[in-house]
Design goal:
The protein is of the alpha/beta class and 446 residues long. It has two domains: 68 residues, no CATH class; 338 residues, Alkaline Phosphatase, subunit A (3-Layer(aba) Sandwich), CATH 3.40.720. The strands form five sheets. It has a seven-stranded mixed sheet, sandwiched between helices. Strand 5 and strand 6 form a beta hairpin. Helix 5 packs parallel to helix 8, helix 6 runs antiparallel to helix 7 and helix 8 runs parallel beside helix 10. It is globular, with a radius of gyration of 25 Å. The chain starts with a helix and ends in a 23-residue tail after the last helix.
Length: 446
């Protein structure tokens, strides 16, 4: 016969059986707000203003939604009402520190800080060290990623190096975080050996239900044999059991949280021939990691500040870095570069579509994710850090209304990051170098 105290101890432990880590997405009960998420989408070397920034209508001054996307952004037309495009946001913090423009931009884009002195040689022969502070994605991860198996996930597509011009994520001063560039290895780390979550959910519910049924039968037998004080304890535990049973039956549908197929790459994932396949594989893994709540903070980084790559999948064979340097008179080169950036826009649209296809809390997963497209330069030809092309996708549920084109008169991007961190639930008055931080970006948050 089971002793009374022994049974009470067992009954108290019954509701505490943990959910499997791969099933953490099931813990979002229908009446609970979904988690907030951040996804960084980085492409190098800035843009050409005439191909990037929208045309505005006669009512633009009073209506930030009165704008027309340029052909470069045509893949994003479906998502126009979920986008915020920014102009007049500068990388002010690059005015300090060591390094050439690409190095300084790479170090600053997510940290809002300058570079240390060092011995890493840049494109103009100058030298630099790593960035002097933590990147905003890691600040966000500390605030919203503690409960997930991975605090953050850094993915790369042809990042091709390990110097300062190849890193944008930082755990702290001189602590760069390298991206994973092989989707096969990423899949192994995230999903190898993980049972299909739908099957796990069924098995887990069955296990919990059998524990509850057994405990309930013993509860009925024991209740008539204990003191009034112990009966009160039993009733409290029974209420806990009923709450757990209700929770098990009201978890959100896990159909979206399917383990993705492992990428099958027949070549070096860093090779130009594999770029298109690696891009889609990494984007699929990013979407799956967020959907299954493996992590809530993801960075997808294309290439680097050096960026001497070609795009054979687009039948485009010029050096990308040189294309970004082409002046206004070199129409052919600028058109070729815009064509490549349109491909980036199509990948961004693919990612948004993946997130927008996941129903969640009366909206979609995209509504609860801020997806930031950014670059380390404003314009490649001049190496300017002004008018950096920032686009935010999603985030409606975070208080970031879409369908807007916001223009500023030279605000520092430190204020953009402070605003995003605040939207993510990590209220931040000032971010990065205090010399270039003034507060939240006006008008961004609704």
């Amino acid at each position: 016969m089971i002793g009374r105290r022994h049974f009470l101890r067992g009954l108290a432990a019954a509701p505490l059986v943990p959910l499997l880590p791969s099933l953490t997405r099931t813990a979002f009960a229908a009446d609970k707000p979904p988690p907030r998420r951040l996804l960084i989408f980085f492409t190098p070397n800035g843009t050409n203003p005439e191909t990037w920034f929208p045309d505005t209508g006669a009512n633009f001054g009073s209506d930030p939604g009165d704008f027309t996307l340029k052909p470069l952004h045509s893949p994003l037309l479906t998502f126009k009402d979920k986008l915020v495009l920014l102009r007049g946001v500068h990388l002010r913090s690059t005015a300090k520190g060591a390094g050439e423009p690409h190095q300084r931009g790479m170090g600053a884009i997510l940290t809002g800080r300058h570079l240390n002195a060092g011995d890493m040689v840049g494109g103009d022969g100058s030298t630099a060290g790593w960035a002097t502070g933590i990147s905003m994605d890691q600040v966000a991860a500390a605030a919203i990623g503690a409960a997930t198996p991975r605090k953050s996930l850094e993915l790369g597509i042809r990042t091709l190096g390990s110097a300062v011009s190849h890193r944008i994520n930082y755990a702290g001063d001189s602590l760069p975080l390298p991206p994973m560039t092989n989707p096969v290895q990423v899949w192994d780390q995230l999903f190898k050996g993980v049972q299909n979550p739908i099957e796990q959910q069924i098995a887990l519910k069955s296990t919990h239900k059998s524990v509850l049924d057994s405990a309930r039968a013993q509860y009925r037998w024991l209740r008539g044999r204990v003191s009034v004080a112990d009966r009160l304890k039993l009733d409290q535990h029974a209420a806990m059991l009923r709450a757990l049973e209700t929770q098990l039956l009201t978890f959100q549908d896990l159909a979206a949280c399917a383990v993705p197929a492992q990428a099958a790459l027949s070549s070096d994932p860093e090779s130009e021939a594999a770029m298109a396949a690696v891009s889609r594989a990494q984007l699929d893994l990013a979407a799956a990691a967020l959907t299954c709540d493996v992590t809530r903070v993801v960075t997808v980084q294309y290439s680097s500040g050096s960026n001497n790559i070609r795009f054979p999948h687009l039948n485009s064979f010029s050096d990308d870095h040189m294309l970004s340097h082409a002046g206004p008179s070199d129409v052919t080169s600028r058109d070729e570069w815009a064509y490549r950036q349109k491909w980036y826009a199509s990948e961004f649209a693919y990612l948004l579509a993946r997130l927008d296809g996941i129903p969640e809390a009366g909206g979609t997963l995209l509504d609860h994710t801020a997806v930031l497209w950014c670059s380390e330069l404003g314009q490649g030809a001049s190496h300017s850090h002004d008018d950096v092309p920032f686009v935010i996708g999603g985030g409606k549920g975070l208080g970031i209304p879409g369908g807007r084109y916001l223009t500023y008169a030279g605000k520092a991007h430190n204020d953009l990051h402070a605003s995003l961190l605040t939207a993510l639930g990590a209220p931040t008055e000032l971010f990065g170098d205090p010399d270039y931080a003034t507060g939240l970006l006006p008008g961004l948050l609704g």
